[in-house]
Amino acid sequence: MALFSDIESFFNVKNRLRGLVLLLVFSSFGLSATPILILGDSLSASYGMPENQGWVQLLREKMPNSSIINGSVSGETSAGGLRRLPALLESAQPKILLIELGGNDGLRGFPPKQLKNNLTKIIELAKAQQVKVLLSEIMVPPNYGPRYASQINTVYKDLATEHDVTLMPFFMEQIVIDPSLMQRDGIHPNQKAQIIIAEFMLPWFEQAL
């Protein structure tokens, strides 16, 4: 009887140790990857190349413990992103949102006030669901004039201050001045530039995590 008791105790201890080991293993890998949503335009949508060659896919490979959902659409404006965001938030349930919108607003000469209103609503929707927001600056072509460019730039700086969100420098700033990194249209980064963008993005997401 004493022997049975000792064997029973042995297996109870063994099972507890096994459970502890499994708990540590699952904890080390994480029960689920951290969901990150990217809400952008053609600069993030792998325009002009297969999706698996774009910077978002390259970033996925650098962040295996995160689940990166690319909600970017070529030609997207801030108004279009705002319309699509509620469904994306519901399906992706992200912890982090990167907003990369406004370039097409600028190309179409939309009023800066309209851009700010749309981006404000996007930020408010995300923060209402406890989503951390990264906001990327954008640039408009110089032919739109320095006044318009300055107004657009001010929109992003004001939003970052007013809503306490992280403002990222425009990731195309150094790429757009290098023709070897641009597609023939002079607007979109080529395949060679994608790894540069991914490496630029990585520390911003790591810091947010």
UniProtKB/TrEMBL annotation:
Q: Which InterPro entries match?
A: Ester_Hydrolysis_Enzymes, SGNH_hydro, SGNH_hydro_sf
Q: Which UniProt keywords apply?
A: Membrane, Transmembrane, Transmembrane helix
Highest taxon in the source lineage: Bacteria
Domain named SGNH hydrolase-type esterase: residues: 38-192
**Membrane-spanning intervals of the chain:** 20-39
Pfam families per UniProt? Lipase_GDSL_2 (PF13472)
Q: Which residues form a coiled coil?
A: none
Kindly provide the name given to this protein in its UniProt entry.
Answer: Arylesterase
Q: Which organism is it from?
A: Shewanella sairae
